[in-house]
Amino acid sequence: SSHEISTQRILTAAIKLIAVREKIGHGVHTLENVTINFSLLIYQLLLGFQQSTKLTMMEIPSIFTPVDWSFAFYEGLNQHQDSTSRDKTYAELGCGNGWISIALAEKLSPLKVYGLDINPRAIKIAWINLYLNALDDNGLPVYDREGKTLLDRVEFHESDLLSYCIDNKIELDCIVGCIPQILNPNPEAISKIMTENSSEKFLYSLSNYCALQGFFEDQFGLGLIARAVEEGRAVIKPMGIMIFNIGGRPGQGVCERLFLRRGFHISKLWQTKIMQAADTDISALVEIEQNSPHPFEFFMDLVGDQSVSARTAQAYMKSGGRVSHALSVYSCQLHKPIQVKKLFEILKDGFNEISSSLDLSFDNDSVAAEKMAFLVYLASFLKENKSNPCEPPFGCLNFRNLVAEFMKSYYNIPSTSDNVAVFPSRAVAIEISLRLFSPALAIVDEHLTRHLPKQWLTSSAIEGRADCDRAKDTVLVIEVPRQSDLLIELIRKLKPQVVVTGMAKFEAITSAALVNILSATRDVGS
């Protein structure tokens, strides 16, 4: 709740701001040359059963304010019962004006709370808010039962997600984050120079981390949360907990899988519904639905449990209706903490592609420990034999035996080392295969040609190609779509000697598309 602050209170706040300048004015730009529109609000927060507190908070336009998302997130945090928080270290990602970090310190009396935000102005306002709540009306420190003040328990630092904790080797017991989900990422936003005097608009965009994060989850607006989870895995203690809020527009399955495939088990602490802002453009979600079988989840108004797709929600909004989406608060903990942390510690040095593509979700818990132990052993082998696994022509025999044994033991695929080839990357595997076969014509999935030699993709000598003299080590490559019916038509018309393709996700559910492609290649002798 908020109400007007008395003149005396504003004067008291001004006295406290002088104390703040003493704290944050060293080695950084002060706020004295910046014109700021600000407001002072009072939040009435529930700390527990029949216990509440008031926080006095300063807000400015260029940082996040506690809208429905962050208040719902705080309610979710209240569902997490932790009776041993006094000796624990917390970090809040995207702390904004700092109110959640301060509220956690008030509620839990932890050893330390690190409030982290990439917006430099947010950190200064958060320090101001810390002083506004750590000092009394006379500007003197307020001590708790342990003889400590909020100034002892809370710190704020400029940080891209968890970079401050990673750089300073700070291990955390709990990581919390009310992190934005970006539907239309702007890859150029982060590349600009960050300065204290940046415009309000730019700093607000910066707070949203408007950039693709390089994860599968980017297409659902979850890329930033995915990166936070992966960074958190490195600094969280083995029995530590991460708590994040996630808007349910991508669907509960996608949201939960974000954690499961990264080696966590999850529990839902809290769920509510949030109204979708009427001016929000969800056309990007409609487009994703049109190009994949994935439906997003919206609800008509705040009632009912039956979800509707993004396309239906868009039509309903354009007709004057209101739609909402779920907002869930998830708690996640590493499933096999020692093994998972060891696995990614091994892979972080030179094996980033493997690290980001691993799926550590297990349908059967009884074999999870055994599988994890095997993956750690496999990663250790890779690290110790970096030049060895990819030795010509098909890779290290011992490594191929390990992979074959894994496929046979856990997936019932009767394979031997002869069925396994090891290359440093898929791109290298494709290029080596094409050089080995040296076809007059190859057709290659357009998603797989990015790293092929440019001269292979620019030749137009298709007519009479069998008779033309090709340059040494040159393969004529035609890029083709992944959709099977179009691919088959091109195979029948062009009659290539080699076909390299992936499978569209919607066609990989059954074997029918693959069988049809194999039939077409057999007919033309590919």
Automatic annotation (TrEMBL):
CDD domains associated with the record: AdoMet_MTases
InterPro entries, sorted: Methyltranfer_dom (IPR025714), SAM-dependent_MTases_sf (IPR029063)
SUPFAM superfamilies the record matches: S-adenosyl-L-methionine-dependent methyltransferases
Pfam families linked to this entry: Methyltransf_31
Domain (Methyltransferase): residue spans on this chain: 87-130
Residues in the signal sequence: none
UniProt name for this protein: Methyltransferase domain-containing protein
